[in-house]
From TrEMBL:
It comes from Dipodomys ordii (Ord's kangaroo rat). GO terms for cellular component: membrane. The gene is Cldnd2. Keywords: Membrane, Transmembrane, Transmembrane helix. It holds the Pfam family PMP22_Claudin. This is Claudin domain-containing protein 2. It is found in: Membrane. The chain crosses the membrane at residues 39-59, 71-93.
Length: 110
């Protein structure tokens, strides 16, 4: 069980770092919307892997007599909602960019 928890944490960290790099690349360069959707999916996957890892670790250690959860455990639970929130933000930003690109071709008289 501990190996599965560690593997999920490492994968979550890897997906988070790759998503961050993709987000920075999107920010620096104009890109197609597929990259924004992929970044959003990677952040959601990172959040799911964090949830699996931290739930597995909690279930394994919750009923032990002398349990101490360190700062890294709480940092993991803090990273979980931020990962999901970042995925929603990228998804929303991608939808806004797509709608702006779709409207830009129409003549608008203000």
């Amino acid at each position: 069980m501990l190996a599965m928890t560690g593997a999920c944490m490492v994968l979550a960290a890897g997906f988070g770092l790759v998503a961050m790099a993709m987000g920075l690349r999107i920010r620096c360069q104009e890109g197609d919307s597929l990259r924004g959707q992929t970044t959003s999916a990677m952040l959601f996957l990172s959040g799911l892997l964090l949830l699996i890892a931290l739930t597995g670790y909690t279930v394994k250690n919750a009923w032990k007599q002398d349990v101490f959860f360190s700062w890294s455990y709480f940092s993991g639970w803090l990273a979980f909602p931020f990962s999901i929130l970042a995925g929603f933000c990228f998804l929303l930003a991608d939808m806004i960019v797509q709608s702006t690109e779709a409207i830009s071709g129409f003549p608008v008289c203000l």
